[in-house]
Amino acid sequence: MASIVSPVVVVGSTVIDLIPLTGSAEGDAELVRHAGGPAANIAVGLAALGDTVEFVGSVGDDENGHFLRENLHRNGVGTTGLVLKAGKRTSVMSQKIAASGDRRWHYDRSVCSSCLLAEADLDVLEALNPSAICIGASSMRGDPARGALVGLAERWHSRAPLYLTTNVIQLRASLDSDILNAIRHIGRLADMVFTTYGDNAFLGLRPRGTQRLVYTRGSRGAALIGETGEITSVAGHEVEAVDPSGAADVFVAAFIRALRYGFAEQQALAFANATAALSTTREGVRGIPVWQDAARLAGLPERPLN
User: Fold this and answer.
1) Is the CB of residue 40 less than 8 Å from the CB of residue 70?
2) pLDDT-derived band of residue 283, with 50, 70 and 90 as boundaries?
3) What average pLDDT does the segment 129-134 reach?
4) Which residues pair with 106 in a beta bridge?
5) For a tag site, which of 39, 99, 232, 296 has the least CB within 10 Å?
6) Would you say the C-alpha torsion 112, 116, 121, 122 has a positive or negative sign?
């Protein structure tokens, strides 16, 4: 694949995921520590698909924070912009699996290490000189991160392609007008917004000019929306799904990587849809398939046809 030197910078959250050990009984499950967080998942997905990636965010300067930094390193993601905040705890999310198989996430709302990202922490972007920026809205639950990310979007939207993932579903427990208005503001500046119909019911974003909305619909596929309406859509794939956790993050990573690799928007949508579907056939939030398998499922060439 083509080498890309100037990195994609992914800005947002990385957290500890405590996931039940496969085969554990409900209510008595042994929890295993994994690295997670929507933005970090996107960064790892981009790296796995061959891109050059830097992660920018904040964690506590504790054992969990160091674990997350090392995990990003092991997955080929640069951490020049990952700040360890002294005296702070790193956010932890616990997954519970019901008898029905439904997976629910629970977290301590009093701890939001990604919300500690300050405006000064984002000065590193000048040195990184990103060729694209992806902002995860899940870090916008509180300040200083909320204001810092709005400022980042205002400074950079005309300098590099800007992507936003809305993640409103993860914020609903603490959703207020300040959070919504900040996400809306960045959404209006972004070149492309990855969202869901449910999220956008709160946000009311409408693409203007060349801006795009990408609706992810889980097992029902995805749609690409422009100023005048739907540009194209793809149906879901029938796969033996094992774990849908993180599939939306895999979708975003695959779409951005496909665009940067030279695929047209419609092809990128099909590739991302296939990549996300295959990711559900594996356990864990980062079940990223190989490029060739996703391209084959999507009915695409392995390389763009120029």
Assistant:
1) no
2) confident
3) 98
4) 94
5) 99
6) positive
The pLDDT value given to residue 3 = 46
Q: CA-CA distance, 15 to 19, in Å (whole number)?
A: 12
Give the mean pLDDT of 86-113. Answer: 79
Residue bearing the bigger pLDDT, 159 or 219:
159
Q: Which residues contact 46 (CB under 8 A, 6 or more apart)?
A: 8, 10, 53, 253, 256, 257
∠ CA 231-43-202, rounded to 5°:
50
- The full 3-state SS of the chain, as one line of letters, equals CCCCCCCEEEECCCEEEEEECCCCCCCCCCEEEEEECHHHHHHHHHHHCCCCEEEEEEEECCHHHHHHHHHHHHCCCEEEEEEEECCCCCCEEEEEECCCCCEEEEECCCCCHHHHCCHHHHHHHHHHCCCEEEEEHHHHHCCCHHHHHHHHHHHHCCCCCEEEECCHHHCHHHCCHHHHHHHHHHHHHCCEEEECHHHHHHHCCCCCCCCEEEEECHHHCEEEEECCEEEEEECCCCCCCCCCCCHHHHHHHHHHHHHHHCCCHHHHHHHHHHHHHHHCCCCCCCCCCCHHHHHHHHCCCCCCCC
Residue 14 token pair: 């990385």
Please state, for a pLDDT cut of 90, what percent of the chain lies above it. 74
Q: Which domains are delineated in the chain? A: 8-14+37-87+112-298 (3.40.1190.20)
pLDDT at 2 over 50: no
For 68, residues 6+ apart whose C-beta sits below 8 A from its C-beta are: 14, 15, 16, 35, 37, 40, 59, 82, 90
Nearest to 273 by CA among 304, 294, 246: 294
pLDDT above 70 as % of the chain:
88
